[in-house]
Structure formats: structure tokens, C-alpha cells
Amino acid sequence: MREVSRTEVGPGPWLSGLSRAFGLAVALLAAPAGAEVGIVTFTVDNVTSQFFRNQMPEFFERGIPGTLFGQSQPITGAPGDMTWEDARGLAGHGWEFGAHGYTHAYMLSQASDDVLEMELGVPAAQIYLGTGIFPVTFASPNGDYDERVLQRVRVYYKAHFRGWGNEGINLFDRTDHYHINREHVSNQKSVDEICAEMERAGREGYWLVYIWHRVVDVPTYEYENSVAQFEGVLDCAARLRDEGVVRLMTARDALEVVPHTPK
């Protein structure tokens, strides 16, 4: 199938962590027999210095983990781009760096074999060299892939994330790790609507994967979200986590919880 389109540790943090653990325990006890608390994963497809400086601290301050999918070519420290120092700091905030190609300039399903290997293999090596952590997750640039691409992805990575699909919903007992659905946070939905989606994932016990691309004052196209919506959604996610309604995880960590069910 081809898809194209769309430092200080004190009593405060300790008590907060205890509260989160207690909330999760309560939710697990209250859930129906056999049910698991659902997972929400936030992914970011943006390696600009602007996003890293302005939006990533909002995740960090709330203790929200996630996965940044980045093409590795522009991570040079040039004006406007994040740096490898930025990338190395992600792990300290509970974040994962996943691969998103080398250049993000090709439709992988149409790329030559040599270009495909470059787009898959080079970022794996660069991320490992730049951060000391080998990436295990890959998101296709432009949301474009076919079976030939997936065959090569399996050589380098443990999972492949789509650009969209099934509203970002992945069922615990029916998820192929090489066809993981994601969905961009819609700027046409209110914070309350997104909050309800996350709560539903937690209570019904499935894995919901969101994408953020750009956060601006006034969105002008579908892959932009307002600052108010972005911060409101993160506030809700943090609250649901603290109440034990959802588990917030990186893509890497969620893969250890959601079984691989090949198609």
C-alpha cells in the first residue's frame, strides 16, 4: 500500500511522582477486568530552533514525554535549526529522538534504492553518533511509503509510524508495529474535544498517537495549531495522567506495552 498526502530534586517532584503513581493504581483497580489504562503519545515533526526553544519547554515543564521525529540533515546548528546539543538533551526530559529521514526531500516510494538507503540508514547513524542512543522508530517523510520501503525500514528500525490513519488510534491487540497510526492534532477541534479523545483512549484502553507540526499565534493551514490550543491540550494531558486516567509515553516505551501483531 502507498500512502501519500495529508536541577533540583526536592519534596515537590517526589510528591508529584507519588501522586501520579497513586492515580494510575486507582485507575487500574477501577478499570473493568482485563482492561488496561490507555496510552497517549505526543510526537513532534519539527526540528527548527523556534519550536525547540518555544514549545519543547512546555512539554518539559509538565513532565510530558514524547517522541521528536526529525530529519537529520538540518541538525547542524545553522540559524533556524536545532542542534545536536538540543537533541542530546531530549533524553533527560524523558523524550525520544526518532528518525524522519535524512533530507525529507523525497517520496520514499518513488526513490531509487540508493536514495532509499540514504534516507533510512544515514539518520540512524547520525542520531546514534549525535545522541549516543540508537533510534528504533521511524516516521516516513511526507507520509509516503510502500511495501518496498517497509522491507528496508525493518532492517534499521523496530517500528514505522504513518503520517495519519484511523484518527491515531491503535488497538492493543491489533497493532502492527510497522503500520502505526498517527493523527495531527486538529486545529478545528476545541481543547475540550481533544481532551475528551485522550480521556476516551485512557478509559477504553487503546494507544492514541498525536502529531504536532507548527505552533503559531494564528493558524493559517491544517498543520498549524494555536499556542492556546497547544498549551490547553498539554494541560489536559498532564491532568489526565496525574489522575491516572491515561499513561503518557514515548513511542519507544509504548512499543514495549503494545504487542506487535503483524498484518
Automatic annotation (TrEMBL):
This protein's major location comes to: secreted
Entry-linked Gene3D superfamilies: Glycoside hydrolase/deacetylase
Alphabetized, the UniProt keywords read: Signal
Subcellular location as annotated: Secreted
Asked if Signal is a keyword of the record, the answer is yes
In terms of superkingdom, the source organism counts as: Bacteria
What positions does the domain NodB homology occupy? Answer: 38-263
InterPro entries to which the protein is assigned, alphabetical: Glyco_hydro/deAcase_b/a-brl, NODB_dom, Polysacch_Deacetylase
User: Which PANTHER family does the record match to this protein?
Assistant: POLY-BETA-1,6-N-ACETYL-D-GLUCOSAMINE N-DEACETYLASE, PTHR34216
So what does this one do? Is involved in generating a small heat-stable compound (Nod), an acylated oligomer of N-acetylglucosamine, that stimulates mitosis in various plant protoplasts.
Which family, according to UniProt? Belongs to the polysaccharide deacetylase family.
What protein name applies here?
Chitooligosaccharide deacetylase
Q: Which organism is it from?
A: Tabrizicola soli
